[in-house]
Amino acid sequence: MEIICLDLEGVLVPEIWIAFSEKTGIKELKRTTRDEPDYDKLMRYRMDILDKNHLTLTDIQETISKIKPLDGALEFLNKVREITQVVILSDTFSEFALPLMRQLGYPTILCNSLKVDKNNMIVGIKMRQMDGKRKAVDGFRGMGFRTFAAGDSYNDLTMIRRADRGLLFRAPKNILDEEKDLLYATEYDDFYSHIEDFVNEGKAE
């Protein structure tokens, strides 16, 4: 049996923090996991900016409510779910994810959560697990699943390399230059073909 493990932002939906940066005009918030490998450092950097600008969780959620899936993402996801199981492995937060999952037909998502104070300010994060994407892939493999993992950022690399097969989707040049041995795709049709081949190989074994 196969299971497909997909990152969320940059793969199925736009980057939340880039959208919020554009709304607020704060260019520093455009920094994402495509730029910074250390997720804890990145979140501390973001929370410091939010605090200095008195921006709350509600402010971010208002931006998220207007985000739509990337063009072709829902059709791609539906096609994949017709041939095998899919789970979203994301370092985003449950407080961000619900409206996005609604638009994607409520796929299963494993993500993290936020610590919010009485003023609705984000004061910390609750990571489900450190390196949770890789550990999820390990868990699926331990249950006998053949795993295919795909993402676009530094925090996706450990799950991609641990999976039976992995792929970079629309990753930036800096990551492609550093990870030249990995498969990559830039269009959903090509992405789907890689997944379909992987599933068919499993049926043939």
Query: In percent, how helical is the residue content?
Result: 40-55%
Oligomer: single chain
Query: Would you tell me which CATH topology of the domain at 2-13 and 71-111 and 129-204 applies?
Result: Rossmann fold
Alpha-beta content class:
alpha/beta
Distance between the termini: 11 Å
- SS strand fraction: 15-25%
Mean pLDDT: 94
Tell me the number of strands: 7
Quickly count the helices. Answer: 9
Order of helices and strands: EHHHHEHEEHEHEHEH
CATH architecture descriptor of the domain at 2-13 and 71-111 and 129-204: 3-Layer(aba) Sandwich
**Spatial order of strands in the largest sheet:** 4-3-2-1-5-6-7
Radius of gyration: 17 Å
Extract low-pLDDT stretches: none
Global geometry = globular
